[in-house]
Design brief:
Blueprint lengths: L2 H16 L2 H11 L1 H9 L9 E5 L4 H8 L10 E2 L2 H9 L5 E5 L3 H6 L7 E4 L4 H24 L23 H32 L1 H6 L5 H31 L8 H25 L3 H17 L12 H7 L3 H13 L5 H33 L1
Parallel strand pairs: 1-2, 1-3
Antiparallel strand pairs: 3-4
Helix pairs in contact: 1-10, 2-3, 2-8, 3-8, 8-10, 8-11, 8-12, 8-14, 10-11, 11-14, 11-15, 14-15
């Protein structure tokens, strides 16, 4: 193997990538707009949910309930009639429609248990599930405070001292932005290397390489270092200017240590991308196979759901995946400020998994080139 061949082939890959506008747009999008939108969308929490209220009682109690709904959890309530409630729900104008019946305050003061109707648009799953509980708590709290003529919380026999570390305000933006960067590293590493190999095959340049004095190892190393370099540069840019800059999210640990771990992860995932690009013969086939591989890697790696809540068999199988160790490493460094003394097992695991994937992909790539020759 000659390093000059690896360097020249790598610069060719960079020039080829520079002439592919769609790939460049994809790289820029996922590490800028994709990260920002994922962090600010917050689909898990209730945020500016549209609510309409039918107030047939027109009493101080009903007015008090209406005034309890305000941003940021809800939009300001829209007062409608009962006839407009069904049409508004059918048109998707409101996620919630609360109907306060006539005589509601009178029945409450008389000790009866009047019913308040809450209509929920369940097609908006996250808002419907979370918002129903919010509305029940708000209505119950306002009625209780009105009857007792004061608002008082029940005294607990145990005083719970709650201390939140690493994210004191429980900002979902912090978690969403960093995890999107982590997932995009895996996504682009596989896509760029696989697409580069398929592009060579579709353009016929793979046959040119076969008659040149280069080896399969040199070809594969060139694709690995160039695509890994592009993803590393995009990752550093996203953390500095999107996560820390535009979103003002603090990164606790060393950025250089994280990038070193990302480089090992890229060594494994770019090898995986070359294998997928070798197995498939066209870009549509590559896209279909990518979905089958990428979704389990991201969903079962511990980035979306803690690994401890998964079945033990799944945990055991995913311990051989590079994404599992990369997520543990990245969360420890970026969230908790961990050093090398804490994350060195993940560094070792990524190096071993990367070596195995690289060797396996190289063997299959050699067989593919031999069959083509």
């Amino acid at each position: 193997m000659r390093l000059s061949h690896v360097w020249n082939l790598g610069t060719k890959e960079l020039r080829s990538l520079g002439r592919d506008p769609m790939m460049l747009i994809l790289i820029v999008y996922v590490f800028t707009v994709g990260v920002y939108s994922r962090a600010t969308a917050m689909p898990e929490s209730l945020h500016k949910a549209p609510i309409a209220i039918v107030d047939e009682d027109r009493s101080p109690l009903s007015t008090r309930i209406v005034s309890a709904f305000y941003p940021p959890y809800f939009l300001w309530p829209e007062m409608i009639s009962r006839a407009a409630m069904d049409t508004g729900m059918d048109a998707g104008l409101y996620t919630f429609a609360l109907n306060i019946p006539s005589g509601f305050q009178r029945d409450v003061l008389a000790g009866r248990q009047p019913a308040v109707q809450l209509n929920v648009d369940a097609t908006r799953m996250s808002q419907a599930y979370t918002g129903s509980g919010y509305i029940q708590a708000i209505v119950g709290g306002e009625v209780d405070a009105f009857v007792k003529k004061h608002r008082a919380a029940a005294k607990s026999p145990v005083d719970l001292e709650l201390r939140v570390r690493f994210n004191p305000q429980l900002e979902q933006t912090w978690f969403g932005a960093v995890m999107e960067v982590i997932n995009n590293v895996t996504l682009l590493a596989i896509v760029l290397t696989g697409a580069a190999l398929i592009r060579e095959r579709e353009h016929g340049t793979i046959e040119h390489l076969l008659v040149m004095p280069v080896t399969p190892l040199e070809i594969m190393l060139a694709k690995v270092w160039t695509m890994a370099l592009v993803v590393l540069a995009a990752t550093a840019f996203s953390l500095l200017f999107v996560v820390e800059g535009a979103l003002s999210i603090p990164v606790q640990g060393s950025l250089l240590l994280f990038l070193a771990g990302a480089a090992l992860h890229l060594f494994a995932t770019t090898s995986m991308g070359i294998f997928l690009g070798t197995v498939t013969r066209s870009m549509p086939q590559f896209g279909l196979l990518l979905m089958l591989v990428l979704l389990p890697l991201q969903m079962l790696s511990g980035g979306m759901t803690p690994r401890e809540s998964m079945p033990e068999l799944v945990q055991l199988l995913m311990s051989s995946a590079p994404t599992t160790h990369f997520v543990i490493l990245a969360q420890a460094i970026l969230f908790r400020g961990a050093g090398i003394t804490v994350v060195w097992p993940q560094f070792v695991a990524l190096a071993l998994i990367g070596a195995v994937l690289f060797g396996f992909s190289l063997g299959y790539f050699r067989k593919s080139l031999a069959a083509s020759g």
